Amino acid sequence: MKQFKLTFILTVLMSMVGLQAFATKIEVNGLYYYLDTYNHLVAVTYMPSGKYYGNVTIPSSITYEAKTYSVTLIGQHAFLDCSALTSVTIPNSVTIIEFEAFRGCSGLTSITIPNSVTSIDKHAFHDCSGLTSVTIGNSVTSIGNSAFYNCRGLTSINIPNSVTSISDYAFQSCSGLTSITIPNSVTRIGNSVFSSCVALTSVTIPESVTSIGESAFALCRSLTSITIPNSVTSIGAKAFQSCDGLTSIIIPNGVTNIGEETFFQCFDLTSVEIPNSVTSIGQSAFYKCSGLTSVTIPNSVTSIGNSAFYDCRGLTSINIPNSVTSISDYAFRGCGGLTSITIPNSVTSIGEGAFDFCYRLTSVEIPNSVTSIGEGAFNFCSGLTSVTIPNSVTSIGNGAFTRCSGLTSIHVDDNNPKYDSRENCNAIIEKENNKLIAGCMNTHIPNSVTSIGAKAFAFCNGLTSIEIPNSVTSIGEGAFMYCSGLTSVTVLNPTPVVIAEDVFTNRTNAILYVPEGSKSAYQTADYWKEFKEIIEIDPAGINQIMSNQKDNAKIFTLDGKRINKPQKGINIIGGKKVVVK
Question: Whole-structure pTM over 0.90, yes or no?
């Protein structure tokens, strides 16, 4: 009984740390071994100095001191970096090929792993870059981590149906591999197993597989199609990242989550079918899938992650189901082909930059379930002509509608507790501090406004003139930056407001109208003094503000020149000063 216990303990320990920790190193006929005299077993090991080279035949047994020992293992590092090794014959007695046994054997061109072998340990053939042919015996049940990593010469490999798992990185960077058949004994494809197999054009995944690991097929640039069986319930993050040749994909009905960057930069992907088992679409899941023209999001999905459809320029429309409660940051940023979007009334927040650079978007309806609109949410939606803020919205981030150069109408629901569009001003004004935070080409700034927010009119190319009432004491950074059409600015405050350099970037092409007696103050004030011309006016003499530009009376400019029709800015119409918007 004691002998049995001792044998069992030794066996466990050897499996944990290797035979060499408990054995004597010997040399027989030019090969070195670790000798286990107790169990009459030996493992091939490395040379104490120098490297094996040429053709090596490993015997099935050796005789040492009149005793015969079976060769059952190729030990750790046995042929590590033996770059001059050209061939090796493994006998049928070997059961395990251990850690880094043949790593770096770049001269090795072919190898046959006999049926006696049950396990290929991690990194066993790592960097065997000259290896063109591998035969794996049908007793192998596991292929370890990075077992064939960077075996660039391999063009095909047959995995026997004895294998139940392909470990992480097993065939990563086998850049010559063109096809692979995974047997129906395999239940899991590990992380990065075929990552960077750039020549891989086809792969067959059997019904036995239930999970595909992270980055499993990442950077398989030649892969044009793949069938994922219905047995798969889990697809890891980045599983098909940068598979630029992939044109279509059907996700099986058992999958509940499309992970982070799963189809990141699959440029040629034109359609994807998402089943109603999926509840979440992860961050950057379809990032830069620029060829994607159609996607149906089922009503099982509750969350769309940050940048999920970032730069999917081929999308023209998308239906967001009413199961979704939030649209995350940059979810649809750069979807330049998107012309319309329907946001369901289940959504409570629109994230930062959610529709940024959707420049063909012509209409969007924000439901009254939405409470917050993030910073730059609709930035550069230059095709957008009107926007209505419902009474539910209580938070609007900076620059939410910046660069919406086509906007002609902005309206805030009359019952909104935080914002308004008082006096039909075509702007969004914060009630509490009377701050105008977003305007458009048709904005009229009411006398009650005390400040203009950062980038409130930035990139508003259609804006040609603006009157800033004397109630305004603060103008934020970039408030009128890159308003290329702005040629007339009227400021009714006799004291110049301190502004930054980027507030009026078109100032050298614009005329500044200021109250009588304040011209000298503006001529010495930073950045105000750089306007093309500064003209004094009598604010009290302005009788009317009009926008229709129609009047039958005689019309003159301020310098007395007769004109046929009113110009934007200050005109003398019928003997009265009139500001034409």
Answer: no
